[in-house]
Amino acid sequence: MKSVLTNSKPLKGEITVGPDKSISHRGVILSSVADGEGIVKNYLHSEDIFSTINCMNMLGVDIKITPEKLIIKGKGLNGLKEPNQVLDCGNSGTTMRLLSGVLASNKFFSVMSGDSSLNNRPMKRVIEPLKTMGVQVYAREDNYAPIAIQGSEQINGIEYRLPVASAQVKSSLILAGLKANSPSTIIEPAKTRDHTERMLKAMGADINQEGLQIKLNPVDELKPQEFIVPADISSAAFFIVAALIVKGSELKIREVGINSTRAGLINVLLNMGANIKLENEQIIGGEPVADIIVSYSQLKATDISGDIIPTLIDELPILAVAMATAEGESKVTGASELRVKETDRIKSTCSELQKIGVNIKELEDGFTVKGPNKLKGATVESYKDHRIAMSLAIAALIAEGEMLINDSEAVSISFPEFWDILNSAIK
Hints:
Monomer. The chain has twelve helices and 23 strands. By secondary structure, the protein is an alpha/beta fold. It folds into two domains: about 1-20 and about 230-425, Enolpyruvate transferase domain (UDP-n-acetylglucosamine1-carboxyvinyl-transferase, Chain), CATH 3.65.10.10; about 20-210, Enolpyruvate transferase domain (UDP-n-acetylglucosamine1-carboxyvinyl-transferase, Chain, Alpha-beta prism). A four-stranded mixed beta sheet has the order 2-15-17-16. Strand 8 (about 135-140) and strand 9 form a beta hairpin. The radius of gyration is 21 Å and the shape is globular.
């Protein structure tokens, strides 16, 4: 699929973006190993989430799918069954990494694989600590899927210092540690999204965070919950930036999750001079939520690095678009994790924004952007990466001439309604 876009009228009114992908994944997986029937309301209808649902189905979990909610008959921590075929994780790294932790402590054999993109993403960061816990894990070059796991009911607790800040790796080890024979301590180099910890605590798990340490004691059961998934700030990010860079825009994005471990983008944009306000702040399903009000702003350059990077790692491609309109030189460093996403997002962000007139230069662990830039239409590649496709679509709103985005259907991986919501917001 190819999408053709041109520069835009202002974005106005109120919108609701898709539900949070990270919380939807975790709601499915955690409810599947709870004792009894759990519900996940307002889940994300996307390819990634259905990959997780299909994998849990193959592990013997009965999941009733309705448009509004998932009704999941949890099998308990010991009730999953050995799958009779390969677990297909599609394009979802979250599915593969989190499921590794679940499978590690179940006494059966399983194999996970995915599409060509996922099967070339590094998995050693999960494989090595699971092996330390006593799990037999086999992978292509000991790093890439397909991954075979011979689980065990006698895995060891672990004290592990994550070499890279990764919520997926942290969550995988937490899930494995639920059934270990001793407590586990996981130490992060910087705080990452804490949805797993919040949700497990609600389910009765003995898990606590002290600074950058997560301490977990094994449990016998998890209590099923009714999880309510807020709107995804990673999806809202595209519309936040769109309203900031398209003259005359004023947009309200309703009930967005603003968990501090995910809201780094808002903090950076405020520092750049963005007109962003939070209203109607509340707690829904254990997560902080607010309406985000955004209007067109003259942005100024900024430098970002260090501990804030994990809180906006998924938003860096769209942040580069905002930086392209800002006065001065912006710099992002400490973001080498971008190179092992669905594509090398440092390389793809830089190469495609350069095509449309952005003065952006690739660094080993980030990029620099000199602005403001006058954007021009061009034929660009999404690399079948949903966040690259959406970032380029937002850039097209202020570009002169037509922008043709190849493989734009990639947005369905995380945000199938993106195009419809974008069209509805342009007045």
